[in-house]
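tokens incoming
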């Protein structure tokens, strides 16, 4: 116990300064000597009123308060300290036979109590217990402050990442002769692994992409940004089949090391003819709603990028007639209804009577608006050929 006042870890507020408040000069002086031998810096006051004046000046860590003093007693000093939320531990001192007063003091916020006349063993045990409790409370507060600061930093980083990710998505749909194009991405968390995009390699061609990286949050977002950049660069000079095979080779090592994969729907539309060339890399969430209301699933498909090294992707084709609509979406829409998987036909039926791509998009997004947080990132792309 003799070294207690000097033992503390870096970053913790040490417990060194004690204020003894007792109107009995003999008892007051005796406690001062005991505490100084234990290594503490000790101050003293003869009554409660003087103690109030000394607390701001001396900034004690522990108060040893006699309950019965003329003028302002120990309970009143205790109340004053607790009302102001001071970082001070309080030990009350009571005479034998007044334990009920000690219980009242504990109820009002005292940390412990001692009975007079003081016994050395009890005195040191109570003091050690109180000092250790105060030290741990201060350490916990310091750790909470550090955690709060880390949390604020993380939230700021996530907010910046969300802004960057949002800026990677297209701003506004391009003007397309005879077609309407709309898309939206809603992350399940602040940032996510879904993405979509389009390019106009030449006036008669539109390239479309919708992807879904396994997982959510920052890891998925980092892989999303990489996959998007690679595929975007390759799509400028290559048709869908070649672009996707080259992208798969470029991303293969990164995906294998991370243990992740990416599902992709990548297509190229010839605007004059309405012919769509596409590759489905394990995505599977795409359908065509024909002008007559029938629904067609897109044939063909492959495996997600990052699952089968060296896999060769093959291209499929279809033609969008007047009034036809291509809908591509992610798991967030397919799994929007808890307990069931929304089928393409059901989603297609929800579009009946819609006036264009914008209204179709809004209807599909509303399906996922169940009032509950999204279980997965939600992305929808709608390409409608005007009738």
């Amino acid at each position: 116990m003799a070294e207690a006042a000097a033992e503390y870890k870096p970053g913790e507020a040490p417990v060194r300064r004690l204020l003894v408040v007792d109107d009995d000069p003999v008892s007051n002086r005796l406690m001062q000597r005991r505490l100084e031998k234990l290594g503490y810096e000790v101050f003293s006051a003869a009554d409660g009123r003087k103690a109030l004046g000394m607390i701001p000046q001396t900034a004690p860590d522990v108060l040893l308060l006699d309950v019965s003093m003329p003028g302002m007693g120990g309970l009143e000093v205790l109340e004053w300290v607790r009302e102001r939320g001071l970082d001070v531990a309080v030990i009350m001192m009571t005479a034998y036979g007044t334990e009920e007063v000690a219980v009242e003091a504990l109820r009002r916020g005292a940390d412990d109590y001692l009975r007079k006349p003081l016994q050395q063993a009890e005195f040191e045990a109570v003091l050690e217990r109180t000092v250790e409790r105060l030290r741990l409370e201060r350490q916990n507060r310091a750790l909470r402050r550090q955690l709060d600061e880390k949390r604020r930093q993380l939230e700021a980083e996530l907010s910046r990442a969300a802004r960057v990710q949002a800026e990677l998505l297209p701003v506004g749909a391009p003007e397309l002769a005879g077609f309407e194009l709309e898309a939206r991405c809603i992350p399940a968390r602040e940032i996510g692994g879904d993405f979509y995009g389009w390019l106009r390699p030449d006036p008669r061609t539109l390239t479309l992409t919708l992807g879904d990286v396994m997982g959510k949050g920052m890891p998925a977002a980092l892989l999303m940004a990489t996959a998007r950049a690679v595929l975007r660069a390759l799509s400028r000079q290559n048709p869908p089949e070649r672009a996707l095979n080259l992208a798969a080779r470029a991303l293969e090592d990164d995906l294998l090391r991370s243990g992740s994969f990416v599902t992709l729907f990548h297509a190229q539309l010839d605007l004059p003819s309405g012919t769509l060339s596409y590759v489905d890399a394990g995505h599977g969430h795409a359908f065509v709603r024909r002008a007559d209301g029938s629904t067609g699933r897109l044939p063909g498909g492959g495996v997600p990028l990052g699952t089968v090294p060296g896999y060769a992707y093959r291209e499929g084709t279809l033609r969008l007639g007047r009034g036809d609509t291509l809908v591509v979406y992610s798991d967030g829409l397919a799994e929007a209804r808890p307990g069931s998987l929304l089928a393409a036909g059901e989603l297609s039926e929800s579009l009946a009577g819609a006036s264009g791509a914008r209204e179709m998009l809004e209807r599909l997004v509303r399906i996922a608006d169940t009032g509950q947080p999204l279980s997965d990132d939600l992305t929808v792309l709608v390409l409608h050929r005007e009738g």
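note: The chain is about 40% helix and 25% strand.
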